[in-house]
Write a structure and sequence with these properties.
The chain is globular and about 50 Å long. The protein has helices at 3-23, 28-41, 49-74, 80-103, 106-126, 139-156, 161-170, 175-201, 217-237, 243-267; strands spanning 211-212, 215-216. The longest helix is centred in the C-terminal third of the chain and has 27 residues, at 175-201. By secondary structure, the chain is mostly helical. 77% of the residues lie in helices and 1% in strands. It has a two-stranded antiparallel sheet with strand order 1-2. The model has no long low-confidence stretch (mean pLDDT 88). Helix 4 (80-103) runs parallel beside helix 8 and helix 5 (106-126) runs antiparallel to helix 10.
């Protein structure tokens, strides 16, 4: 692999970590479109573009999710009772959804990804937040919600925060604990998603060298440590920069990247 790709993956990992720390936003929305473009330039076959990008992004989320979980746990912001009930559904939903994703053509996956990211960006722009209006459902109900959150997360390679936090705040969980609990939930999502994409990509022909299923190891190994290194810097900058304005700018960036991904897979 040429040095230019090493630099690209390091830069992508650093940018993802910076944005995660600065805005509290997971990296899938950034990683998947940019990875897709990089894989095109590296000559990855069209039919595997989206799957390889999703699998690699899921794997790269694992160390960042672990670091985030530990940080929130130290601040006693994790509702472990909720994590215990929601995790079975999360694991099953995320893992099974990777099998669904493996059957979906790259173009259809790209369209679904773009639509979800555009909707998430609009939510960021208008800052719609559900009003606390009910209590948490039963453990079975919470696990059922986890099933849905995990399924969607696997199809767009996110840690679930954009879905878990609104659900928990709607159920009268305070925002700091909703964010902390969502961070804890992100780890099983990333683990189950990465494992599912590894299994579904195992033995698939035409993938680049140094892949583990649908996970491209050079990208994963270069992005992960730099995303962890840059996240604390982003968190510090969050106290000095106009985060509300940056979040709006970032929302437009997500839209642009999502649309760019669709353009890439339709013209590759």
């Amino acid at each position: 692999m040429d040095i230019i790709w090493w630099v690209a993956y390091v830069a992508l990992g650093g940018f993802v970590g910076l944005m995660a720390g600065l805005l509290g936003i997971g990296g899938g929305g950034i990683m998947v479109p940019i990875l897709t473009s990089l894989f095109v330039l590296q000559g990855v076959p069209h039919e595997h573009l989206a799957h390889l990008a999703l699998g690699t992004a899921m794997a790269a989320i694992i160390p960042a999710s672990t670091a985030s979980l530990l940080s929130h746990h130290r601040h006693e912001a994790v509702r472990w009772d909720i994590v215990r009930f929601i995790t079975p559904g999360i694991l099953v939903g995320t893992f099974l959804a990777t099998f669904v994703a493996a059957l979906i053509p790259t173009r259809s996956l790209a369209i679904f990804f773009a639509c979800f990211m555009v909707l998430m960006s609009i939510q960021m722009l208008i800052n719609v937040k559900p009003k606390p209006s009910r209590s948490l459902p039963s453990p079975v109900g919470v696990s059922g919600v986890g099933l849905g959150i995990g399924g969607i997360s696997a199809l767009v390679a996110i840690g679930g925060g954009s879905l878990t936090v609104p659900f928990l705040t709607w159920c009268n969980v305070t925002l700091p604990r909703a964010i902390g609990t969502s961070a804890a939930v992100g780890l099983p999502i990333a683990l189950a998603g990465a494992l599912g994409y590894i299994i579904n990509g195992w033995g698939v022909s035409g993938l680049p060298d140094a892949t583990l299923g649908f996970v491209y190891l050079p990208a994963f190994l270069l992005m992960a440590p730099f995303s962890i290194l840059m996240a604390p810097i982003g968190a510090k900058l969050a106290h000095k920069l106009p985060v509300a304005l940056l979040k709006r700018v970032f929302a437009f960036l997500l839209m642009g990247l999502a649309l760019q991904m669709v353009y890439t897979v339709f013209t590759a």
